[in-house]
Amino acid sequence: VQLQASGGGLVQAGGSLRLSCAASGRSTSDYDMGWLRQDPGKEREVVARISSGNSRYYSASAEGRFTISRTSNTVSLQMNSLKPEDTAVYYCAVRRKRAGPFDYWGQGTKVTVSS
After folding, report:
1. What is the dihedral of CA 35, 101, 106, 32, to 10 degrees?
2. Rounded CA gap, 55 and 51, in Å?
3. Other beta carbons within 10 Å of 79
4. Cβ-contact 2, 23 below 8 angstroms
5. How far is CA 28 from CA 4, 48, 90, in A?
6. Which residues pair with 2 in a beta bridge?
7. CA distance 99 to 101
8. What end-to-end distance do the CA atoms of the chain give, in Å?
9. Is the CB of residue 19 less than 8 Å from the CB of residue 3?
10. Pairing of strands 9-12, 109-114
């Protein structure tokens, strides 16, 4: 599975961005898809995750501000009310097994939120 992420950029605090990720190589319709982020010096964090049955998980920092959605081979993350602490490189990812590790990763897209 190859993942191509897009949509990052620079935005002011309080603004919005939409990240998109397209999967190719094989169908991901039966897999969980998610968005993770990492800022230098910090651990990688699962921001949001969506199952093949559209069950959603959000981190505490994302709950109420971010919305994850998917089709069979794409996953998107709508980010509203962005804060400077949301600044990070965002990665889309796919995992084949529920509760397992993420197996496939996109290249990352940088999100910078200015105060």
Report:
1. -60
2. 5
3. 25
4. yes
5. 13, 17, 19
6. 24
7. 7
8. 37
9. no
10. parallel
